[in-house]
Structure formats: C-alpha cells, structure tokens
Amino acid sequence: AYDNKEKTIYLNEKDSYFRKAFTVGHELGHFYLHDDKPIETFFRLDMQRFEEEDCLMEQEANWFAASLLMPKSVMISLWSATKDITEVSRRCAVSSLAAHYRLKNLCLLD
C-alpha cells in the first residue's frame, strides 16, 4: 500500500525480494504520477473492484515500476545478448513474469 498523505510505502514482509522491489517501484509510481489525486491510500486489491480511473492509475504505476526496474535500453541490450528470459530477470532482479511482460511491452517478444 502507499499512503499518499503520509508519503509512506507499506510492504508485506512475507513477499519475495522480487515482489517487494516491484511493489516499491509501483508505489513510487503512485507517488510521482498521482500525487495530485484525491485518493489518500493506494492498495493492491482485486482489479475487478476498481473504477476505470483506478485501473488506469494502477496500469501507470505498473509501467513506472517496470521502467524503473527494467529500463528500455537495458532490456534491449540484455535480450539481444541472451534471448533468455530467466537470465534477463536474474540480471534485473525481477521475476521472470515481470521480465516477460516488459519484453512483450517493448515488442521484443512475439
């Protein structure tokens, strides 16, 4: 969760390092992109319960986290050198799933 009023990020201590890193990046996205929004606290909840604007803000925060943890130039370089999602994810310290989606969003995967 990210508390907009207190400017505080809360993590689940049971989450993996990869999950924590992505969560911090995601919540930083809310800090930088949504500071002007009236929502005081952003929670990771069931996406089906979000209004359209909330879904857009969550997508923007995910994009921010992915861009922060896996910069485009780094991903292009790693992918061209390895063609191995596991290696790319290891070098960026993210989950394989996060690396897969980033590569796909950068149109580096079919």
Key features of this structure:
single chain; 110 residues; mainly alpha; three-stranded antiparallel β-sheet; 3 strands; 58% helix; elongated
**What is the chain-wise order of helices and strands?**
EEHEHHHH
Q: Distance N terminus to C terminus?
A: 33 Å
Strand order of the largest sheet: 2-1-3
Radius of gyration: 15 Å
SS-based class: mainly alpha
Number of strands: 3
Lay out the secondary structure.
Elements: E1 2-3, E2 8-9, H1 17-33, E3 41-42, H2 52-69, H3 72-82, H4 85-92, H5 96-105
Antiparallel strand pairs: 1-2, 1-3
Helix pairs in contact: 1-2, 3-4, 4-5
Descriptive notes:
The chain is mainly alpha-helical. It has five helices and three strands; from the N terminus they run E-E-H-E-H-H-H-H. The protein has a three-stranded antiparallel beta sheet, covered by helices on one side. Helix 1 (17-33) packs across helix 2, helix 3 (72-82) packs across helix 4 and helix 4 packs across helix 5 (96-105).
Short structural description:
The protein has helices spanning 17-33, 52-69, 72-82, 85-92, 96-105; strands spanning 2-3, 8-9, 41-42.
